[in-house]
Amino acid sequence: MASQRSLPLVIMETGEGRCGMIDTVRVGKTIQQLRKAKGMSQEVLSGLAGLDRTHYSKIERGLRSPNLDTLFKISNALGMEPHELVAITEREAAENVQTQ
Fold this sequence. Notes:
This protein is mainly alpha-helical. It has a domain at 31-98: Orthogonal Bundle (434 Repressor (Amino-terminal Domain)). 57% of the residues lie in helices and 7% in strands. It has helices at residues 24-37, 42-49, 53-60, 68-77, 82-98; strands at 11-13, 19-22. Strands 1-2 form a two-stranded antiparallel ribbon. A hairpin with a 5-residue loop joins strand 1 (11-13) and strand 2 (19-22). The chain is globular, with a radius of gyration of 13 Å. The termini are far apart.
């Protein structure tokens, strides 16, 4: 059985057209904001996504980066398409970089 690797959601640009480190904290904060906007607890969202709540909590805190399968599960639980979640996360990351 092949092992699953976590795929990056947000890659921060270094300013010269190159990609830098993945901002797992920004990914987690964006997912958390979307969850709260829907009025869901971590327990409810993780249940809808079929994820262990402690694993989901680590994603929100930026301690884990969701792999592609997990991204699809979270976006489905939020009632959105995976590409929408990625686009929102990228916008949030870009805004965060511009304000620094």
